[in-house]
Amino acid sequence: MTIDWVLILEKILLISGVLVISLVVAMYSTWGERKVAAIMQDRLGPNRAGWIGLLQPLADGGKLFFKEEIIPGSSNRFLFILGPSLAMMVACMTSAVIPWGDTLIIAGHTVSLQIADINIGMLYIFGVVSLGVYGIMLGGWASNNKYSLLASVRAASQIISYELAMGLSLIALVMLTGTLSLKEIVEQQRHGYWNFVYQPLGFVLFLICSFAECNRSPFDLPEAENELNGGYHLEYSSMKLGFYLFAEYINMFISSAVMASLYFGGYCFPFMDKLGLDHNLLTILGTAALFFKTICFIFFFMWVRWTIPRFRYDQLMRLGWNMMIPLALANMLLTGAAILWKQGH
Amino acid sequence: MQALTNRAKPVDRRPMTFVERMYLPAIAKGMAITFKHIFQKKEVVSYPEQKREFSPVFRGLHVLNRDAEGRENCTACGLCAVSCPAEAITMEGAERKPGEEHLYREEKYAARYEINMLRCIFCGFCEEACPKDAIYLTETFAPSNYKRESFIYGKEDLLIPMPGEKKKA
Fold it and tell me: What pTM, to 2 d.p., does this model score?
């Protein structure tokens, strides 16, 4: 048995590339968030560190690294450190199944721009996203602080409630495409319309649920600054706090990329096969298109955050269980009926 | 109860309609408002580079005046300290020695004159109380500092420079 060293090298390069890119995007999301908040409130935002404040994330990161590291005496030390590490790791893991582009042909060798094209890609994403709640839960519980505990309980129940609706809204998409592999879903959209056209309700439900899964406003109850003093990361300082905040931005980036891949054609863009361009060039353009879509979604996340106030907890639960899940079920039923009708049964 | 103004509006307690319960139209409306603000004028003055103009009646940091020959006007009469509602002014008088006529205008002068800028409320009563035109409020304000002690301004901070001489920073 021979080991395909080229494949291993290629995958290692790809993994490091994707990791670095998601970290950089997350870094500049913090800058983008402050900039978007500022311009929506008629301010200027960070503009002192570097040109239009572009060095601000580096300054923030440097500050977080050099801050004093405090571990509360009454906390569970092991779990306290495990919390942010888990949050960060889980946030980085999801990017493995996202097709970042089509294939590149380098010296007769075909290189896929997807780390792992597994045929259960969507299930993998669900599994990993569900793990994300452990980071918050462990961190909040290990802090031994009532605000942190309350916040992590909130986070757990919120994420579980919205995961149901999220899964149900995706089942309709799976019924339509007949596959769980993200690469195939994207390829199907290359020639036809984007899935958004077939699944408008499913997309809206998925969008709302991903806001809830990312703990973004208006579903940011786990970190409600003004009621829970910051929520589950209340006792955290230094880079451990940085990890929590960073993981949130990575999650936002990844869920934007997932939404772009599932509903907005991923790396496909209109008329891409009619341009008659070189295959490699087309792949690079496709990756750029995916990043453009992702950044639009990130902007949307921020836009919503600086517009809509936070839900009350009972409103959040009622929305999740009484509206999202019935709507997702109805969407599933309609999709199923439409598929059967089309097949002529 | 009789309405105090004619602008009172009754509270609408009707249950929400279906469209209102969907939240989404209201959210879209709100998001249109925030989006509009992206293109609006930014209400920001980038402070150290740009400065907002003060009104002509602005009262800022004090100065101690000199007369046309460069002699200190202050005679340490204490009227400013008496008039000060915040009790920010402290002074100590001293007698002018022979040979110091070019420094102080009258026989008595302030050997120590301190204003605590953290106590001062910049009301300008000291300026009004002064019979010798010795204290004036300018159009600058006290710069920030790390120490409370640095906000007690002594004579060296307050006195305007001698004519033809630059004040050290």
Answer: 0.79
